[in-house]
Amino acid sequence: DAKTTQPTSMDCAEGRAANLPCNHSTISGNEYVYWYRQIHSQGPQYIIHGLKNNETNEMASLIITEDRKSSTLILPHATLRDTAVYYCIVTHQRGNKLVFGAGTILRVKS
Amino acid sequence: DTAVSQTPKYLVTQMGNDKSIKCEQNLGHDTMYWYKQDSKKFLKIMFSYNNKELIINETVPNRFSPKSPDKAHLNLHINSLELGDSAVYFCASSQEASGAHNEQFFGPGTRLTVL
């Protein structure tokens, strides 16, 4: 599975959009980009995934560049409850084997 | 209703003991997993079972043995516990569906402390 690179931490003001970048320059054609998050003392939670098109669901939007070498997770209106570690994972379609990196610590501040 | 549950939530034990962590999912999923999150917060997959059969087995010491009595349960047995086994263990499950992505649902975790 391709490796990913994410910033160690980011801050975001409550109510503003949080944009979390992820680099995955070695991604192969059949690999998907998945995002999970882990709120303190809880298990990870699925957010969204995509192949090459932009995706949106009730939690977030995923923007994947045309060359697929990077992506951005967007939380449109961050709240304090969105403070968590966000993991960008590249894996094959089934998403069975998730390889978690260090992730990005997102701190939403009032 | 809790989708993926684990017991116990906390487990404190002495080196050399044998312990088990239980996991149950009520989602009707076919696949279950065990992950380990160490003190540095890195989360690593240990095992994956699909319909009671082992499909992923990462480099994990033989002291760790998953047991799946039915597809709703995947228990983790650990023999001869060592200090380095101290971690948070997460169980997860997903629906195995051909051609579809498998969103994994995680349990709340079991914090194991070996003294």
Walk me through the structure.
- The complex is a heterodimer of chains A (110) and B (115).
- In chain A, 0% of the residues lie in helices and 47% in strands.
- Chain A is mainly β and 110 residues long.
- In chain A, 35% of the residues are buried.
- The model of chain A has no long low-confidence stretch (mean pLDDT 93).
- Chain B is built from no helices and 11 strands.
- In chain B, strand 4 and strand 5 form a beta hairpin.
- At the A-B interface, strand 3 and strand 4 of A face strand 5, strand 9 and strand 10 of B.
Main attributes of the structure:
heterodimer; A: 110 residues; mainly beta; five-stranded mixed sheet; four-stranded antiparallel sheet; 9 strands; 0% helix; B: 115 residues; 55% strand; globular
SSE blueprint:
The complex is a heterodimer of chains A (about 110) and B (about 120).
Chain A lengths: L8 E5 L4 E6 L7 E8 L6 E6 L4 E2 L4 E4 L5 E6 L8 E9 L11 E6 L1
Parallel strand pairs in A: 1-9
Antiparallel strand pairs in A: 2-7, 3-4, 3-8, 5-6, 6-7, 8-9
Chain B lengths: L3 E4 L2 E4 L5 E7 L5 E7 L5 E8 L2 E5 L6 E7 L2 E6 L8 E8 L10 E2 L3 E5 L1
Parallel strand pairs in B: 2-11
Antiparallel strand pairs in B: 1-3, 3-8, 4-5, 4-9, 5-6, 7-8, 9-10, 9-11
